[in-house]
Amino acid sequence: MRNSSRGAVDAFIVMEVMEAARAAEEAGRHIVHMEVGQPSSGAPAHARNVLAETMKTDPLGYTMSLGLPELRARIARHYGEWYDIDLDPARVVVTPGSSGGFVLAFTALFDAGDNVVVGRPGYPSYRQIMKALDIRPLEIPASEKNGYLLAPEDLEGVEFQGLMMASPANPTGTMLDSEGLGKMIGLCQERDAAFLSDEIYHGIEHERRSVSALEISDDVFVINSFSKYFCMTGWRVGWMVVPEPQLRQVERLAQNLFICPPHAAQVAALAAMDATEELEENRKVYARNRKLMLDGLPRAGFDRIAPPDGAFYVYADVSHLTHDSRAFAAEILDKAGVAVTPGLDFDPARGGGTLRFSYAQGTAEIEEGLDRLRRFMEARG
């Protein structure tokens, strides 16, 4: 059988780094994982306990395509608690992870051939999902002076039907303030283009809080996930907040593409939203790890970095060390036993000279990884 052209997307390099790290671990090596944005703590204990009790009496069958009503209501309440927004639960759509949200949003909003702007560097799956849907990702390079986040001047003379932005961003951890976010939303609305806000790292901030696009406008798509702040990566549950006119369109697509999100994951997610004490302790770990990284990476020789505002990443310019970040990352894994992500995942044009370091693991692992990186760079000369 022949393959479709839509399926000819690039590999997600970080997943291949994970596989190489796993193979090294199977061979008996201890690997420090700085490659993947995955909290090491796992789902909150309260969430796991509630699910275990629920499974004793509930067969966990299909739910409504838009998600459990009680979870949608709890997410809506979350916006009141975090952002002082009075949100109608009817606008909340529970999704199979944020990835399911991207598929639903892109399919609901854009036709084949539409131009959707994404910044470089940026999360690679945006462009790959769009390519698989025959949507054209317009990758616009963002400048370092703007924290690698797009600004209105970057889109002058560009024709587009949508704009996808993340704040805090992956891979840089940088954030837009209310004024900057408002300018980008306003630019889209002036051009009758859709604005999509990836907010999956909200809750993981260090010196100022994240701003939700919903604080500025209701006419936006907001995509979030239980993977990061709520530490539920493998459970594959996320959510979207959708403008009312698009809600039925999204519902029909969700019915046919996914039937419903995983019932068990939704039960755990609902309980996780009330595990605040445990989750805030995790956030304190990330804050400690960030300080270690901002001190330890320059000591190891990775001194061209911008302090991240949120998330749990440091994006480093290593163009003075290599122009092949993939080979450099492989060398670090082989010789130092530390897995890091090549910047090519996030910026095919400039990423040969960058690396992303994740500090989502426990503090002892981060300290060990930094020590290994220092010794590796000293030996490398």
Description:
The structure is a single chain. The protein contains 11 helices and 12 strands. The chain is an alpha/beta fold and 381 residues long. The strands form 3 sheets. The protein has a 7-stranded mixed beta sheet, with helices on both faces. β5, α6 and β6 form a beta-alpha-beta unit. α2 packs across α8, α4 crosses α5 and α9 runs parallel beside α11. The protein is globular.
What structural category arises from helix and sheet content? Answer: alpha/beta
Strand content: 5-15%
Main β-sheet, in a few words?
A: 7 strands, mixed
Binned, the helix content reads: 40-55%
Strand order of the largest sheet: 2-8-7-6-5-3-4
What's the number of helices?
11
- Strand count: 12
How many whole angstroms does the radius of gyration measure? 20 Å
N-to-C CA distance: 51 Å
What is the chains' assembly state? Answer: single chain
Topology:
Blueprint: H1 13-26, E1 32-33, H2 45-54, H3 69-83, E2 92-95, H4 97-109, E3 115-120, H5 124-132, E4 136-141, E5 162-166, H6 178-190, E6 194-198, E7 221-225, E8 238-241, H7 244-257, H8 263-272, H9 276-300, E9 313-317, H10 325-336, E10 338-339, E11 341-342, E12 354-358, H11 363-380
Parallel strand pairs: 1-10, 3-4, 3-5, 5-6, 6-7
Antiparallel strand pairs: 2-8, 7-8, 9-12, 11-12
Helix pairs in contact: 1-10, 2-8, 3-8, 4-5, 4-7, 9-11
